[in-house]
Amino acid sequence: MSKPKSDVFAAIAAMDPDQENAARLAGLEKPQPIPFTAPVLPLGAPSSETNCPACDSIRSEQELAAALIAAREAHSPFLENHAPPPESHRASIELRSFEWQLRPATEWQPVTLPHYGGPIGRHTAEYRTVFELPEAVRAKEAQMLRFTEVNYKAHVFLNGDFVGSHEGFFAPFEFDITPHLRARANELLVLVENDAINRGNQSWHQDAEGEKLYAATFLGWDEPEVAWHHCPPGMGIWGRVLIEGRSAAHLSDPFVRPLLDEAQAEIWFEIFNTSTDYTTGLTVDFSIYWRNFREVRCERVPTKWPERLGPNRNLLKVRIPLADARLWSPQTAWLYQLQARLLRDGTPIDTMECQFGMRSFRNDETSQPKGKIFLNGQEIRLRGANTMGFEQLAAMRSDWQRLMEDILLAKICGMNFWRLSQRPVQAEIYVWCDRLGLMVQSDLPHFGTVRLTQFAESVRQSEEMERLIRSHPSSILVSFINEPFPEAWHRNGHRHLSRHDLENLFVACTHAIRLHNPDRMIKPIDGDYDPPGPGIADTHSYNGWYQWDRLPLGAINKGFWHATKPGWRYGCGEFGAEGLDSADLMRRRCPAHWLTPDPVEGWNPGMIAECQTGRHQPMWFEAPAAGAHAPLEDWVEASQRFQALIVRLMTKAFRRDDRMVTLPSTFSLMPGPPDG
After folding, report:
1. Given strand 372-375, what is the order of strands in its sheet?
2. Which listed site, 236, 375, 596, 658, has its alpha carbon 20 to 30 Å from 556?
3. Comparing C-alpha atoms, which of 314, 210, 240 is closest to residue 272?
4. 163 and 258 inside one domain
5. β-strand 668-669 against 578-579: which pairing, if any?
6. How far apart are CA 255 and CA 258, in angstroms?
7. pLDDT digits 0-9 by tens, 594-633
């Protein structure tokens, strides 16, 4: 067998921050088990109310398939659209066929967007294409070049002219290319730069540290030794590229802010003016439609606009009454649709639509205890899972059936919540979570540390994150960093923000986000290795996965928890255990050398690249009866049985603890193909 590589994630779990930051821990307390009072169970028929009624009765693939059919039927009313289609005043083309090469010049290869893969680290790729612009697009006053997602830095050239740059991997961006277009044969060149991440690429055995804002999860690509392992930071144009003809002044990024306490909605209109001059004669009107149910509609509400509209972005806010609104919740995903219309001297020149839900979501930091979470005025707890790229892969492939079924499977399992772990995702995923009633948390992509040079860029990307998610009622929560380390761990104070400066970054990002959405709930840290921090305390607990953890598994089962702030609710943003993929999938997709038994030692999971089961199994469960010579199927069954035990044990322990208000688990399969 090959020599085991270092396991960065296991090393993080094995670190003990209590030895490094005793002064910071002095004001914390360790929660004790809640006193148990034996319940008195009344005689009579059992209640049908359970945490997970559908999941309780599922014991086979056939029963799961039947439950999924029933869930689709139950949610079908929320997928209806009763709003009339708005009249379009735009024309567009999508560019999908490109040539691609790495620098220094290798060889141009044809690719079709979306396109994503390696290499990781500091590299530059070139994408080029030649296109003809249809007359319908050319006839408009302005032509905008729009990218939905590029990873990581994009530098865009049209017909040899530089038109703009963008940094980041999740946010849409666009440029006005009107002055740079030719009548025929336009040449588009996009340089895409990759880099090592702030924390360093050691997780993927590359000794490099860079400027890339990226944590540890994404959608991966189909290369087994590196790309199947916990989402290495690849590169590419992994979204859509469109050229859209619009009016010179056009609508941009509408947002509806629910104000339930005032029985109102606040509509935010943005008008982007491509002209460098002031524009006059513009007005806006809008209509509110009930998207997935039928009731009276509010149509054609006129809005007065300032006489002079300046260049670039202009914002107007209007409040309207919206009494007796149907509220959005995981049980009732009622949605409205805003249709806005821009007029010049009374003639419509642009329209946009935006679905929204009327709901409130807040974290009470003044109550006793602090940190209670409320949806529509009712106290709730978040129960769910971390996602690791499968939903992004479905969206990238426009596989909406699979995305819908993945969301419904989560709900069948009793979840009301996903943590979109360590990054925001494509807009379409939020749309489907809106429609199917699944709440989500989005994270700014930081892990462990933040480079000194990336303070301002982090604030800018926090704005982009909020503008991406703010119109979606499913988006209830954001975080700024995953597992910040005590400074003694990374010993790179000359390169990374200190804890003091990191908390100043939280303040700056909070102000930036609240500029774009005053009502956003923020949990600054997910998995704090250097507490205490602001807001709800969150600690990750892998004491059923790795060989060591600060709090024994039995202690959690009894009701103990990590040191936390007195008088506060708390969360566990990650927990769980690894299991092996199904034997059928492994035999179909895994490289032969992963599955070929060693002549002396036989086969064990340590032969799979980056699989952790082989390293940590001896601590947790007996190897199958034949030891290292056990069949693959026996190892799969043993690992998955243990995985189910840990997830069930920890989930039940957390649900018994009413101080635990958010608990998304991370039960994971071993590294595998993105389509597995």
Report:
1. 361-364, 372-375, 378-380
2. 375
3. 314
4. no
5. parallel
6. 10
7. 999 888 888 889 889 888 888 888 888 888 887 767 888 9
